[in-house]
Automatic annotation (TrEMBL):
Residues 25-37 have a biased composition (Pro residues). The gene is Pacrgl. Residues 1-46 are annotated as: Disordered. It comes from the Eukaryota. Residues 1-24 have a biased composition (Polar residues). This is PACRL protein.
Amino acid sequence: RMSSRIQINPETAAQKSKTSSPLPCNSPEPAIKPQPKPSDKLNPKTIDPFGVYSRPTAFAAAYAKGGIPCRLVHGSVKHKLQWECLPETVPFDPLLVTLAEGLRETKHPYTFVSKEGFRELLLVEGAAEKAIPLLPRLVPVLKATLAHADDEVFGRGLDALVQLSAVVGPSLNDHLKHLLTNLSRRLMDKKFREEVTVTLQKLEQYGGKAAVAIIKSKIPTYCSISP
């Protein structure tokens, strides 16, 4: 009789084990939290844990793995980058190409890190010697940026192209024709006509007379800034 009284119903035990799981008291958070990404620590508000999963871009993947040696610092007036080491000591290959790929990002902080990182890396001493060998890989990436449907992405592409041209000078001429088709297309848009025209003038300024002939071969209506 004693044994029959203490016999436990299997279903009752299972239910009891479910209700007695070690959830923290008075806490709306789940017991198991997903491991935060490096980007979460930099700007947690930009990450939506309930967003639809999508395959990360090459830049986002590198950023999440800590492959971008700089981080975003939120300032009271404007944001800035803080490098883990001096930019002069960072290998351009593959970082400059990776930052160029990041110009097509549309989410913060990727947009700022890629644009500012690309600009600052090209400002270091000896940038020309480091960037010129990468032109065959950089130009296709910039071409894709200039073909992007997002206006802000296109604008970042224009800025990056001018920055690159200022550093490598006439070395960009051999690759210029690959970029002019997208510039010509946007030149027809009143919204970007002035920006594209200024970009073409900068390409001429840094590329010299040879650049003028290349530009006119793709954009016959272009007016040279040379007398």
